[in-house]
Records
---
Amino acid sequence: MTLGMMRIFNGLGSGRVFTCLALLATALATLTANAAAPTPAQVEFFEKNIRPVLAAECYECHTSAKRKGSLVLDTREGLLKGGESGPAIVPGQPDSSLLLQAIRHTHPTLKMPKVGAKLDARILANFAEWIRQGAPDPRTAPSTANTQPASSTWADTLAFRRQWWSFQPLSKPSIPTPTNSTWSTNAIDRFLLAQMESHNLAPGPDADPRTFIRRLTFALTGLPAKPEEVEAFVRASQIGNRQSAIANATDSLLASSAFAERWSRHWLDLVRYAETHGSESDPEIPQMWRYRDYVIRAFAADVPADQLIREHIAGDLLPPAQTRFSHDALNESRVGPAHFRLVEHGFQPVDTLDDQVKAVDSQIDVLAKAFQGLTISCARCHDHKFDPISQRDYYALYGVLAAARPAQVQLDSPELLNKNRPELLALKSQIKSALADAWRDAIPQLLTQLTSGSSADPQLATLHQRVAEVGKSLAALEGEARTKALNARAGGLQPPPAAASTPQPIARWSFDADARDQLGALHGELLGGATLRNGRLILDGNSAHLRTAPLARELREKTLEAWVALANLDQSGGGVLTVETSSGSVFDAIVFAERDARKWVNGSDNFRRSRALDGVTETAKPGELIHLVVSYRADGTVAFFRNGVPYAAPYRPDAPIAVFPTDARVLLGRRHTGGGRAFLAGEIDEARLYDRALTPEEIAASFRAGPVGVGPEEIAKAMTPEQKSKRAALTAELKTARAALAAKAPSATEDALATALKDAQASLANPLHAWAKLNKLDGPAFTTGWADTTKAWRDALIAARDHNAQFTKAWDLAKPTDAAQWFREGNALVRDALPRVLPGDFTLEPDGDRVVKGLLPAAVSTHLLSEKHGGLLTSPRFRITTDSISVRAAGGKGAMVRVIVDNYPLGSNPIFPKAELTREEPGWVRMDTAYRKGSWAYLEFGTADDLTRKLGKSSDAAGRSWFSAERVLFHDKDTPREEPLAAAPLLDAVASPKSAAELAAHYERTLRAALDAWGRNSLTAEQTAFLDYFLRRSLLPTSLKSLPKVAPLVAEYRRLESEITAPRRAPGVIAGTTFDSPLLTRGDHTKPADPIPRGYLEVLHRPSPAPQTLLPPRLALAESIASPQNPLTARVMVNRVWHHLFGRGLVPTVDNFGRLGDQPTHPELLDHLAAQFIAEGWSFKKLIRELVTTRAYQLASEPTAAARDHDAANDYLSHFRVRRLEAEAIRDTLLAVSGRLDTTQFGPPVGTGDRARRSIYMGIRRNNLSPFLEIFDAPKPFTTLGRRDATNVPAQSLALLNDPFVIEAAKSWAEQLLRQTPQADAAARIQLLFETAFARPASADELAKSRAYLTALGASADASDPRMWQDFIQSLFNLKEFIYVR
Amino acid sequence: MSADHRSFSRREVLRRTSLGFGSLALAGLMHSRAFGAGLPAGQVHFAPRAKRVIFAYMSGGVSHVDSFDPKPALAQRHGQPMPVPVKPTMFNNNGNLMASPWEAKPRGQSGVVMTDLFPKLAALADDLAVIRSMTTKVNEHAQGNYAFHTGFPFMGHPSAGAWMSYGLGVENQNLPGFVVLQSGGAVVPHGGVGLYSNGYLPAQHQASIIRVDEQPALPNIKPRESDALQRRRLDFIRSLDAPFAQATGEAAIEGAIRNYETAYRMQSAVPELCDLTGESDATKRLYGLDSPNKQCAAYGRQCLVARRLIERGVRFVELSCLNQGIGAGGAANPWDQHGKIKEGHGAMAAQVDTGLAGLITDLKARGLFDDTLILFSGEFGRTPFSQGSDGRDHNPFGFSLWLAGGGVRGGTAFGATDELGYYAVEDKCEIYDLYATVLHLLGLDHEQLTYHFGGRDFRLTDVHGRVLREILA
């Protein structure tokens, strides 16, 4: 039985060990300090070999100053006198010296130094030699603080500790020549045999071939050898040469996919592989399984260990020549760093720095244990107690790893990621020229329309008038019907009140034709699949909702009103009508069933202004409209009404009424942004927002009046036949008039122009504002008007610029120098090139009639070639010093901007600032950072699938998502404003227009200048906005139909774009700002001390520090570890392989090569293997082949008599070690023997229930580990575990006796057995079962017992009763031989 | 002293294991470490005051200012803003000072002030040692749960129950040494079953979760065949295992063979444990099993089974609260009233008060109270100011817990928070101090109960911990 690393206590308890040396009895008190003076050679020996050890190991407790246990070791006198109990040494008699006994750990109770730390064998030899010589000690002077170090400096300590065996360069031991010259098959055997012989041991007999092939097959594949494989091997080793049979079997096993699955699981143990982050909610690490598959492929392909390690540490930074690709063009190297993401993360931590310190500590812990066999993590709080690792070393390494930012990274090869890129770029350039030409050509037409449409053509005016009049009549007719329809809704009881008596909302959405606000500018955008039907907003309860433009005014006192029909009454948490701040963190809303089932509630952020309302339980049928109102009065009172009557008594919450800032907005169908279960399933007929609290009377009246919006069906229903026919006539007339109008104005821009001019009349920011105001003027009136307009334009621009100037400009991504400081990932933001930040760049619509929407301002954009390109754009590291961060950006389809604080990648609640990007045109997005002030952070812009963590919605089905990032401001209260740039180019005119005609010419000149500049890529921001205005409104042609010359180019572009595929992604890290981490005093993250230069362990930089300072720090770290010069890496790796094959490492503590670890049983062999491993190209397969073809690997497991007596622990490997199968192998074997094993490879993790896949493909959720595997010691994923426990607990017996999985396996095997052997007798079946389960036939005795057992089971039953065989098979599963390997 | 304790345990083991089970030699059983003998003989470091622990874990965080650390200032200043800066909270939705809905008064002879949130426990105030100056370093549930269970705020370390099983060894070979009870659909707190893990200690020290009101109470405990059939199977297995064990000479294989005998006996020991037919009606009433409040009855069942477990030699029993679903409290954190603290805490207290008071009363009547330690705590306290209008956020800076039973000085209130109950200000305690004290009461020196793993010796108390002698009898 193995009990893991249990350290057996002695009866004294560990505390006493500290003082042990002092307890020695005085026996040789007469031995004095007046020994002969040491010779120079002896002095040198002492100074070189003894004093440093005493200083480093003993002085901490035993000095003249400290005198623990009265023992003083810093003077010769003290050493000889000893402690309370007497002298520590007997000069000349090493073996009798208690000091040596203690440091050799041969004394029954005394083990020095400190708890369990060991001294190197060479040091022990030095001490023995020194004592043998009489312990010559030059330290004659009485000790004073000056003459001897009370506690040594780190340099002294390092100088001493670096002498530990594992830090020495690999030696080149000569291969021994043992006496027995026939036994060995290779050099390894000779090393082992020589050791055996020197300990008077001889190797035992070889294992029989069946035992051997079972052992080999399990070791290499984790699966049992099939009976036919066993027989083939037995034959081959009998007929031919046993050695060549072994070699052949080994080769075929190494080539199997099962080998890679088995050995990659060993590797996963090193990196604490899991697929979730643990903690509350146990969030998934998206697509972590790609790392598992990467490891499997690496073992299958025998990727050299140094390459694998290099990839793990810096696979994302490797130069192209060192980067590996899989056969399907996947960048393998990029997957390696995924192990850095296998950390646990706290759930929404208040203290993110604390979380980061823990996460990086876990990364260091695993990196150091897995690849170096060191416990560097111990040095977080203080210098390592035993190993040559200082606290400075720890923080040097911390700085390297903390700079790596968590991310999802794209894995495809550059060829795939850049598919069709040059072609698309070239085409886009052609399209641009063609567009410029087409737009230039279209300018005269635009001007004609401008001048004609606005002034002369009387016919046109008549037509416009007629359209307006007929439209009005139609509206009146329908209005009457609507009133009637509403009356009908209210049951006809109440006449609708006069329009004047109903209060006036500030916004109203009726959905008769669109999602626009019919009263103001709070136009809605349909999101998440929301649609309109029959005058209603249709909400699916999953993601559909509507969001409006910002309020553009503050809102305090208010009333929310809506008519809604619920799709069902069992939903909960969906919002009907919400006002929320831009981040969604503060909101008031009408919400269904969030607190209590089927009850309405006025939702608010964390229920601050909410109360569980004592209203009726909702019973409305699907489709039945309910009228809901909640009013918020200035005095803080909240009142909720349903169908015109109070739903609960008005009340005053503790929290004051919320004030919604100008960038707040309205949501319909969603409780608030960021909330879980937030979507409503149902239909909203109408919603209104008021800027005051309605009175109960008003609310009742409004209920009676009903919604204004009535769907066409309802209207039709309310009409008399006469009205219907009149309506038909009007509709027809309208159609005719419109057609005539269209014929008169053949351009598609006609309507667009009319709309634009209408808007322009009211909007100063609009470039056509001047035209709309001035085109009918003349002479002085025009001149004055122009002067007024341009002054207003100027003033507005200056005011906005002045306002924005107050903010700290963090980054202007329009400037290539600023943009170049940011970190770019993904095929949308190619890393190697400078970001493209041309003003006036554009994107081509992937489908539809429209070619282009508009021009982009100078910004870093992901979608310049395709929205299928994705990427992550992260800022330099900065400290948050303001209450807010605003970014000017656009984006859509799941793109987000987030403030990542202390690299914490999760975080969805409001204390983690973030915003979904949903603006088609760029605008300011504010994030509240007040909570995080003082923290280090970076900004992350990401397309949906590239975000480190998706929080918003996903990309669309084609994987499209995009953002365009322009500027970042740090600020407190006030928010930045939009600068009205679009009209600015008109201000540049040298000569002022004097008339409408001159103004038209001015527009033409300005347009031409802008188009020329566009062609030269030298647009100003103002020109970009100006031109964009004309394009967005299609005042210049933007449709395929209107661009005949561009159309074929666009078709070809779209064809090429459609060939782009969505990249494959995996968790990874990306480079961020490099920085030197402060040393954290006692590991406390609230106590930063001085920064420590980035680097690696000082002890490994001999003689000079890091030679690779020009490399990025993480790449330099990778090179330092994956180096043949690193004394630990190759030793640690070969020792791990040895451990898995022989059951115990040459260094038994496989994860610890430091002082608290064990020392190698065969140091020369270890170095021989390590050197050979390096020389053979770090090949695991070659190493394994070498090891399993040794004679030692063939030994039988029965100990020889000599071994039983002298080597009970089997240190010298004179026989083979019996081992229990690992958890995964037990499960896989149960599946394999019962014929159920599904050998499908790779892919997302599977559950336990669905398919009988190998255990390595089962999902590993930290908070929900597989109980079956855990019982058999599958590791808990929290640190490196190179050596698993093999515990022995009754739960294992219970599992094999009663677990349904085991019983199912027995049943399945029984059925298979009977299928395969329909005619066989019981004996033959028993033999087949034994051969399958144990790779051997049953003995005569076993056969007899088995038959007797079967007879007892089913005495009278027929021999083909599957239940009987199932029972028998289940017993076989419970035989120890089933799960133990000899 | 320790030797006496040890030999008693051995006799106990012999007595219990010789009751008609199995056919294998007991001697082998006795010497096998497979059965949870954590430390070698003579491990108890000094005279124990208690032999076992019952841990009533209040997952989600009990409001100390509403229970064991009442603050008159909150009533006086209800609705006023916090007079001191508020540290970052989980939801950043901090309101004003909020009075407790429960009345406070001195209790018992000791006069310790408690509210009437837990009326029956308050009546036993003279048996409780309240620590009012508890602190923890973490502010979220999963990390808080890990810190309270293992001393470290993340997974991987052994749970306190595992340490105690390891330190004290197992008295009853047929039951695990560390048991977590659940009933009424109670679930594992946030953080998952890792909270009950053996960590790097040998696997026999991990908790077994027993569902006291379900069948089967423990996974795989229910045989899928008749006893005779299974007995025959075990005999057959043993007859075929013997030559294999002999050929290999492996102790581990012998251990595995013996485990089958233990497993066989556990199959009847566990169901017997949860079968309450032998308990009197008076006892059942005492624990609230007859309560019309279903949650109260279900929690009371856990309390009663806990008593039966410790009677059978189990070292560490943890009780699990049931979800009431009020004010953000969920199945994994039922005490977490970010809103509706009055309703939520009221319902939660009604759930546990009867069972726990009944447990104390019953243990006293049976003479078990003096060597059983009861520990009552959540992962943190709650803020003296409101969250929203009627909830309280997490407060890790100062909160209360209590101990009762073996070696504890009842009627004590130790340590203090400030006048608002926000920060611990007097005799500030950490979780390490709590466990140093618990281990001390069990006769174990918290600095000596170590386990070597991954290059260092680990302790339940890490590198901290002070025995709180002030609360010891």
---
Amino acid sequence: MCGPPSGGPHSFVRSCPPVNWSLFFGELVSGLTLGSIYALIALGYTMVYGILKLLNFAHGDVYMIGAFVAFFVLQWLGGPISTSVTGWVAIAIMFVVAMLACGGLGVAIERFAYRPLRNAPRIAPLISALGVSIFLQNSALLLWGPQFRDYGTFTLIGVKTYSIGSNFFISNVQILTISASIGLMIVLALLVSRTRAGKAMRATSFDREAAEMMGISVDRVISFTFFVGSALAAAAGVMFGIVFGQIFTLMGFTAGLKGFTAAVVGGIGSIPGAMLGGFLIGLTEAFSTGYLPGGSTYANLYVFALLIAIFLIRPTGLLGSPVIRKV
Amino acid sequence: MPDGQLGAGLPEGAPEVPDAVDRPRVGTDEWVAQHEERREAGRGLAGLVARTWERIPPPGRLALLLGPFAVFPFVTNEGNLYRYGLITLIYAVLALGLNIVVGFAGLLDLGYIAFFGFGAYLYGIMASGHSGHHLQAEIAVPIVVVATGLLGLLLGLTSWRLLGDYLAIVTLFFLQAFVIFVNNANGGLNDFSYPFVGKVDLTGGANGLDRIDPLNFFGYKITTTKGYYFYTLIALAILMTMLFFVNLSRTGRAWRALREDPLAAEAMSTPVNRLKLLAFMFGAAIAGFTGTIFGAVQSGAFPGDYDVGLLITIYAIVILGGLGSIGGVVIGALIVNGAPELLRSSANARFLFYGVLVLALLIGMRPWYRALVVLVGTIVFGFAVHAIVGAAWSRGTAGHTQGGGAFGRALDHWVVLPTNPSRIAGWAYFALIVAALALTLVRGWWRVVVMIPTLYLAAFVWENKLVEQVSGATRLILLGALLVVIMNVRPSGIFGTARVEVV
Amino acid sequence: MRKVIVAALLAAGVAVLTTAAWGSTKAPKRASSGSNAGNALVKCGKTRTIGLMAPITGPAASLGQPQVHWANFFKNQYNRTHKTKIKFVPEDTMLGSANGTAEAVKGAQALGSNPAVLGVVGPAGSNEVKATTGALKGAGVGFVSGSATNTQITLDGTRTGFFFRTVPPDSSQSKSVANYMVNTLKVKRVYIIDDQEAYSTGLADEVQALLKAKGVDVSRDGVSQQQSDFSALINKIPRNTQLVYLPWQLPPKGKAFGQQMKTLGRGGIKLMGSDGLFDPAFSGLGNNVYDSFFPLNPADPRVAAFKKNHSGSELFGAPTYVATQVVAGAIDRACKDGTATRAEVRRQIKKTNILAKTSLLGLPLKFDRHGDMVKKPFGIYKSQKGVFVRVA
């Protein structure tokens, strides 16, 4: 099996090279960090799809705008070099402002680009979403240029690496990302399952007409869904900037694509599915980079292969419900 | 009391049922119920043009659409021929293929451009200085078309079990996979090692497959832009004729049934899966064919050419022209490719911008005097603001419009042009979006009042910000806005008749 | 009446198309074809027209803008000191944008069919050079690039006599870099990471081959230019690697990579970039950062004069200054008798001879038979106190 026999040519004992735990744990942490960002984006996609059956192409660009809004807040606070408040407080302010701003943006997009098309043939809001996406991306490109903007995380809060044993390393920003992301997901799950607004969301996604007849204001529920989904995407954008340091106006496309894939892999319309899908995609990317040949170059190809494999086994995604087609 | 009206048979106390004209009658199908709407649409100039168009026999319609294209090369120089003519035709053929998949059969294929690239690369592998083979086009092109069709079949197989939105993601990823593959398959040290043959330089990697031979039919090489132009034009004419007949055939009707309601079609025993595969194959084959043309024209195939940007362009053409409309793709290609070229010079772009604005105003505001009020009001408002700003803050109006020209210089006195507009222009842009959205919420004379400052703000933003990147970001901003507006106003595109259900 | 309306509408449609054709150029409407174009005689008036192809907008605008600035810098200098004037016809190639090389080909076609254009500066990307060769060669126009460095484009014989470049090719850079790594730094374990673009993979391939031939243990991988997360890849880099080679184009990416290396405990590994990363963002990472760049002299008075009107020295565009110098000089010489053809201008470009001491690049400007400069060295720089200082 592993290497040359250790007790002479006829021995059965072969010395296997020690498992590279450092690589394993490293990729695990990378994968979880990436995955938590993808999961937050995927949640926005899946919630909107669940209620409107619409693929919101503009979601990735809302993520990008969230990252930029936080950057401008940081600049306004004097950062990244000399902020007028301590680093962690600055980050908290960035999160709050970005989430509120993007929540509002999401509501505005829904109100003007999707609501008039609620009864139109399915492809009309899809194209409208594409149009909004192009519009947002290029407006950002026009106003802010294609250059990279630096969050300056090193100077802002100082990046420290913690280690458990000699093989497990994790940095404070990675811990922040993973825990904040899981925290937000828990809040969302509680919101959807325990509150009245959540119940209204679930009812509307189950059967819109019936919900309307029961007195639920569908317009308000949909706006609320967009608000929450966009706020989550903004949080993901800020986290990305903090962990990886750089944001640029074209980042929405790839992240949106991966988030969309995560939502679909987990079963679109299912919130636990989106979370699962996000982490799965992130871990696949990390582990394929680490272990498979030409990993980093072909990482997207490996994710694609995983996608096909999952669809061959479960055509509606991992946790998706089979689609009932009514005549 | 029986008086022949609907609701006459209801018991007393029942609410009045409104007149039949205002809503589709219960129990009647939608087509019949929209009878009054259709009659309304048939009036007016647009209706007149549409009805006259219907009366012309199909060959005449084809000649009318493509006639100007045939005349074009004789009235222009080579540069313009390439820019406005050849690229428009190539995009039109591509859009035609996509129209089969999306417009006829209703499948959301987001990986279509991969077939385009596949066609170009395969042709390059068979006939280029890079690969060393020099097959003649009459052998190479059919091979490429068939091979691309087979690839389309393979991708179409994934639609067997997948429904609309899942198909979209798989096809999109297919495109990404294609780009990555083509970028790395150069037999180099980063490439896969294939069984039996080891590492092979298939595509030249990131450097592209260069020195592709010109199309060589039976010894006759097409080397000039004019040659490729006419070749593509003839191909477009043949394809359009073919599709016209397919539309009338049983397959075309089956595709329409599949598009309108897949479940009902299946219940009526149309072979739904086979039709989907057929659509994929057809579309892919057309894309492959176009790929051979494009590869020969550029004498090279480069990975960056076949990516999502081009996909969005072709989709925009199909949507604008109308899903399912064969002639519409030509008009769509003209608009989507021709307009940005016109926008390249600031002076031209300015004419186009203000022209479109005034035109939209005249069409949009029904009583003509309202439009006139808005126009005059905006001009007066502009001069007033310019004077005030000029008096209060000298640097505010010291700048100049880009591009010059008489119109530009005249605008110097009307639009506020600060010397350093970046930050103000950014906030003005945001304000313009808010104002434009607010416009959709108000009605009547309020709309006139709000529109005047909005128009002036639009001119301000244009001169100070949008003009900088006219052929880049601005073109796409306008395209995005156009898509949203079109979907809200006329979802089926300019000439479309389709209603696509993405199940 | 109806027929009149319909006929009017159709006529309008035809008119729109013809206007589009006429509107953007004042050139005569004869299509130029084949080899005749290069021999069309042009009267050299007071103003000479040069085509300028660069990515003015789009994702690669950060590469194109310095080029345009330096070209304009030369033009202004020239116009101040000469009786004849130079005028540019700019064509935005939008390198890296949605339409790929199609924009460059459109621009080349437009320049080719503009009879006043006697020579072209650009295009910037090696793939663009390949795609536009057909159009520019067909129009008989010579083109000189200040940044297309792919080794093969001068050696494969397709554009000999038409294409020249005022920047050393990748083969020089890879040789200098590999030699420095093996002979001076004496590293035995190298990790090469490209960014999947043509420039990057070309350089990476060459350096990898050279290192392997000298017995160095080389690993290779790639990232995409859109990627900001390198942690998955960095985890894979063994801790005993001595040097990571990054032939990338975008300095902020290089900076992000270096910072992530430090976070993941690999801050001691040396980093080496290519001329795309020659920027304070990259050198600011620390003292174990190296780079390669053409041996421009930063103390040249022209650099200082340029810096006065621009925010930085934008050295990436300096070879475009030289390219403009070459084309302008060739046109001057060809126009000595009052008229010139594009073929004459090409011949004069071939005969360019600018001495080292007057050349901005610190190199003599003479072209060999392939179109490369005869002397094409690359210098190696090391980061000292955040600034790159030449060490080889």
